[in-house]
Amino acid sequence: MALEGRIVKAISNFYDVDTPNGVITCKARGVFKKHALSPLVGDWVEVTVEADGLGVIRAIKPRKNQLFRPPVANMDQVCLVFSVAEPALSLILLDRFLVHVESHQLSAVICFSKIDLLPDQDPETVEQFYRARQIYMDIGYPVVCISVRTGEGLAELAEHLRGKTTVLAGQSGVGKSTLINAFVPERKMETGEISKKLGRGRHTTRHVELLPLPQGGYLVDTPGFSQLDFARITSDNLSSTFPEFARFSDACRFRGCRHWKEPDCRVREAVEEGAIAASRYEHYLVFLQDRLQAEKERW
Ligand SMILES: Nc1nc2c(ncn2[C@@H]2O[C@H](COP(=O)(O)OP(=O)(O)OP(=O)(O)O)[C@@H](O)[C@H]2O)c(=O)[nH]1
Ligand SMILES: [Zn+2]
Question: Which numbered atom of ligand 1 lies nearest the CA of 180?
Fold first, then answer.
């Protein structure tokens, strides 16, 4: 009898599939290889269980989306974790991540971490932080401020994650692992199902993995998303990854306006009026130059 489930972990051609009957370690049918299709963490699959207790993946359901770094499928959203200090908040890096997320048509939750450190910062940093937070709230992104140290904001963040599959992304040191340990308590003790079956101890290298949340949904623990590549972004479609430009760009004089040197650009006017944040536009121009440069090198 075939069971439906979701791949939560993959290690050297073995897959842990979360099914209504629990987690089953599976091999993939050879036929996938012939079709250059390999099962991905996050895939919804059909499995059958063999006499030895091992499962076999028989079919992979069509994917809603697919990321290459990390290699995962069927993600609902990305939670961008940015600490208010240690490391200091970098808005250009946040905007870079947002472009990446928008280009995959994923939704974003912005999570400002280590909020407990804010009172120790100089007044200018504090003010900059509140201004930044307002910018992203005005665009319409869900923004949550958290501290794993004090527990602030954790319940609110848990609600944003409920029932969804969320990739955690952010610079090293912002507190992603600490957050995972707070949300997925059994994580600390667990020895992988696969490792048990293969008779190895706890694996030491980090693998892409879906971690089940108590409130339903999964967190994806991966360092990979930090390697941002703008491969699918061009000078023409970059502006579509800045959602707050959309309201104005239809009123630009030229269709296909890149909102740079073109005359009668409504987006630039909106920046001057303060309806679009100056920092966002500044970063847009940085990314635009980057894309134009890359396109010039290609031709
Ligand atoms: N003050 C404060 N420190 C925190 C908080 N959360 C995590 N930290 C500290 O920040 C440091 C980095 O945390 P990690 O969870 O390892 O950060 P990470 O994002 O997983 O880093 P990588 O594994 O390098 O990607 C640790 O020393 C944590 O104790 C917090 O809410 N407040
Ligand atoms: Zn324009």
Answer: 15
d(CA 167, CA 118): 25
CATH number, span 72-226 = 3.40.50.300
Angle between helices 278-298 and 123-139 in degrees, nearest 10: 70
The answer to whether domain 3-63 has CATH 2.40.50.140 is yes
Q: 106-129: string of b/e by CB count within 10 Å (b at 16+)?
A: bbbbbbbbbbbebeebeeeeeebb
**What's the rounded Cα separation, in Å, for the pair 91 and 242?**
14
Q: Could you report the per-residue pLDDT of 33-54, keeping only the tens digit for each?
A: 777 788 999 999 999 999 888 9
Please choose from 177, 183, 205, 211 the residue to mutate so as to test ligand 1's pocket, defined by most ligand atoms within 8 A of CB: 177
Residue among 111, 154, 178 to mutate when testing ligand 1 (max atoms within 8 A of CB): 178
Ligand 1, atom 3, lies closest to the CA of 114
Amino acid at 102: E
pLDDT at 222 (0 to 100): 65
Give nearest CA residue, ligand 1 atom 22. 172
- Which atom of ligand 1 is least distant from the CA of 117? 1
Show the ligand 1 pocket: residues with CB < 6 angstroms: 113-114, 116-117, 147-149, 172-178, 223
Note the pLDDT tens digit of each residue in 253-294: 999 999 999 999 999 999 999 999 999 999 999 999 999 999
Is the reported ipTM for this assembly greater than 0.90?
yes
The CATH 2.40.50.140 domain(s) of the chain lie at: 3-63
**CATH code assigned to 238-298:** 1.10.40.50
Instruction: List, by residue range, all CATH 1.10.40.50 domains of the chain.
Output: 238-298
